[in-house]
Write a structure and sequence with these properties.
21 helices, alpha+beta, Aldehyde Oxidoreductase, domain 4, 3 domains
Length: 727
């Protein structure tokens, strides 16, 4: 995986071309392979021959079209990235339009060298590049206006999509053709100072909102054209299983079924529409070879993990002599924490439409990994990557599931279309994805923490046991070092709590179980945030200290943590008496460059049939993400991440028995329901620090804040997810 250093990512090359009566501005990823023939007509015609990796188009109708090299999956970059260009361009915001870019290496991520969306990186990775594109376009339009008005360029100003000099005015659309003929500037443009921003940093309504509300937005599942068939695939009920034989006679007897073909992932039933394909699959008679994982059982797996945790593992972080530190401690706290496998369960189930013909291969899908998908499809079809055209649709949720290093659902769809010899949309049901997809890995963690006489930690021994999501993938060379998958231990090995302790050791075991695992919203932080912030709460109570004050003492050298913690404590009215029957819990965690503090307010409610359930009434969140390009977008992502995290904290879990996933849909794989969503308040810390992400960090501290509130209410320390009160 090629990477691009920080200085290189700030270099860009502008070139102009007349495309459909407008000005196109693009910029280059230095060192990236050029695929001019792979880009759309609007990019391929750039006069220098460079295919831009992202660009804007100014039309004669005054519209400004921004092409995104990233995927809009609900995180708001359809608006946020357009704001960057509009700011420097001085565009008329009402004329802004956005399109997904095609798949080509020219659109590679500025840090990762491939076209992708993930890691809460889209906004900060494009902050310079998109502003430079807008500023370059403005410079060319100003030059064209100066020539038209017969004045020096310095006398031309711009506002709201119009160039002005004295009493002369010309819209950008009127200037586009002339601007496109001007030579490219030899030096990067001067960007606006923050004090002059009119759009960046201002709450802005989403551009994709109206069309998603009225149904105009096109998701992968909406793809349809004449001659398109639908396929549903029968996959092995046990991971690693294969087809021994199958009888398609009953499936082919289902009205609407056109064909039944075997593909590497199973047996595909191809039909006129989804219902016929599903009925045909249900009628299939398949004999499976279960493979090596037929005995997989999560209860047995936990015992294996527990045994591993008691043995030395790969060292993720170490300082001093932890054994001596523990022996000298005034007291010792020991705890074991467990989290289950989790499905991503996006609201739009997986789907992929593929058409293979003499002109190449066209793919329509919601994806986070365009480059991987393109290369996999080229490998299967025997085509060149540039002959594979990936059309990115809106994503009805991703959470990492649509970013598989194997391109599993795209790979399968290409195999199906190739075997069928016709255009096919391969559709996964919810049950297909829950039982046969990729999962957030199950983890067991064991900690021994030594405290001094004041209750402060002086020694910390920590073992993590769980699968690596990076090992065996193309990312391993960069993200697995000395047996340590950095995503497994993020938030623990680099924790400010642990790093400040003279005697500490963090060990990692990465067993292979046969279960496919993948990043899940906030990745390793999704479980490590729960464990670390629950442990800190345990230490606070052991020291008989207020949980907020205890954290302040431990984080005194970490101002961004403290700023978020202080703000959330103030806004949640920490220290005041909560309403009768309720209690509050706090958590603070850094991930993806953002610092999040949260306070949950909970009560207990009667469960039908007896017992008590946890009810979360109020959630207060403070975030320091550096500059908030669109504060409304940041708040929306915090709300989204909190509700997503609450589902996992209170309900979600996958279990295996005899190698098979036991859950199947939302009735037994529970997520948060609308009437269970709490009141959420989000407060943004004013910050001029380095920009972080917003899509994932809000999820990481959620479970800990809730568990800590439950302890404050009941004195029950819940160390396993989902949270379940003892009888």
């Amino acid at each position: 995986m090629n990477t691009i250093d920080a200085s290189s990512r700030r270099r860009f090359l502008k070139s102009g071309a007349l495309i459909g009566g407008g000005l196109v501005v693009g910029f280059l990823v230095p060192g990236a392979k050029r695929f001019a023939e792979a880009a759309p007509a609007t990019a391929a015609a750039v006069s220098t021959g460079f295919a831009p990796n992202a660009f804007l188009r100014v039309g004669e109708d005054n519209t400004v079209t921004v092409l995104l090299s990233h995927s809009e999956m609900g995180q708001g970059i359809w608006t946020g990235l357009a704001m960057l260009i509009a700011e420097e361009l001085d565009a008329d915001w009402s004329k802004i339009k956005v399109e997904h870019a095609p798949a080509a290496q020219a659109y590679a991520h500025t840090a990762f060298g491939m076209q992708m969306t993930g890691g809460s990186t889209s906004t900060w990775s494009e902050f310079d590049r998109y502003r430079q594109a807008g500023a370059t376009a403005r410079g060319l339009l100003v030059a064209a206006a100066a020539a038209r008005f017969g004045v020096p360029a310095a006398q031309v100003r711009t506002e709201n999509g119009v160039a002005i000099a004295g009493d002369q005015r010309a819209s950008y659309g009127e200037l586009a053709a002339a601007a496109a003929k001007l030579p490219a500037p030899k030096t990067p443009p001067t960007l606006k100072e923050a004090k002059d921003w009119k759009i960046i940093g201002k709450p802005t309504k989403r551009l994709d909102g109206p069309e998603k509300i009225d149904g105009r937005a096109k998701f992968g599942m909406d793809m349809h054209f004449d001659g398109l068939f639908t396929a549903v695939v029968a996959r092995a009920p046990v991971f690693g299983g294969t087809v021994k034989s199958f009888d398609a006679s009953k499936a082919k007897a289902v009205p609407g079924v056109r064909d039944v073909v075997q593909v590497p992932s199973g047996v595909a039933v191809i039909a006129d529409h989804y219902w016929a394909a599903k009925q045909g699959r249900d009628a299939l008679a398949v004999e499976w070879d279960a493979g090596p994982h037929a005995g997989l059982d999560t209860h047995k797996l936990r015992e294996e993990f527990r045994a591993l945790a008691a043995t030395p593992g790969a060292i993720a972080s170490q300082a001093g002599d932890v054994a001596a530190g523990l022996a000298a401690a005034a007291r010792t706290l020991e705890a074991e924490y467990n989290v289950p496998y989790l499905a991503h369960a996006p609201m739009e189930p997986l789907n992929c439409t593929v058409k293979i013909d003499g002109e190449g291969c066209d793919i329509w899908t919601g994806t986070q990994f365009q480059t991987v998908d393109q290369n996999v499809a080229a490998e299967i079809t025997g085509l060149k990557p540039e002959q594979v055209r990936v059309h990115t649709m809106f994503l009805g949720g991703g959470f990492g599931r649509r970013a598989t290093p194997t391109a599993d659902f795209v790979r399968e769809a290409v195999h199906v279309a190739k075997a069928a010899g016709k255009p096919v949309k391969t559709v996964w049901s919810r049950e297909d994805d829950v039982r046969g997809g990729y999962y957030r890995p199950m983890y067991l963690q064991r900690a021994r923490i030594g405290l001094d006489a004041q209750g402060l930690p002086v020694a910390w021994e920590h073992a993590l046991v769980g699968q690596s999501i990076i090992g065996g993938t193309p990312f391993a060379a960069a993200l697995v070092k000395n047996g340590i998958d950095v995503t497994s231990v993020e938030g623990v090995a680099d924790s400010p709590y642990i790093k400040a302790i003279k005697d500490h050791r963090v060990d990692l075991h990465s067993p292979q179980t046969g279960v496919p695992v993948l990043w899940w919203r906030s990745v390793g932080h999704s479980y490590n945030g729960f464990v670390m912030e629950s442990l800190i709460d345990e230490l606070a109570y052991a020291a008989k200290k207020d949980p907020v004050e205890y954290r302040r003492a431990l984080l005194k050298e970490h101002p961004r943590h403290l700023a978020a913690l202080d703000l959330v404590a103030d806004k949640s009215r920490w220290g005041s008496r909560p309403p009768q029957g309720r209690a509050r819990g706090v958590a603070v965690h850094e991930s993806f460059g953002s610092y999040i503090a949260q306070v949950a307010e909970v009560s207990l409610v009667d469960r039908p049939g007896g017992g008590k359930d946890i009810r979360v009434h109020r959630f207060v969140c403070a975030i320091d993400c550096g500059l908030a390009v669109n504060p409304d977008g940041v708040r929306a992502q915090m709300e989204s991440g909190i509700n997503f995290g609450l589902g996992a904290a209170l309900y979600s879990a996958l279990s295996f028995k005899d190698g098979r996933v036991q859950e199947s849909n939302f009735h037994d794989y529970r997520v948060l329901r609308m009437d269970e969503a709490p009141e959420i308040e989000v407060h943004i810390v004013p910050s001029a620090e380095k920009m972080g992400g917003a899509g994932e960090p809000g999820t990481a501290p959620v479970a800990a804040a809730v568990a800590n509130a439950v302890f404050a209410l009941t004195q029950q320390r819940l160390r396993e997810l989902p949270l379940r009160l003892q009888a």
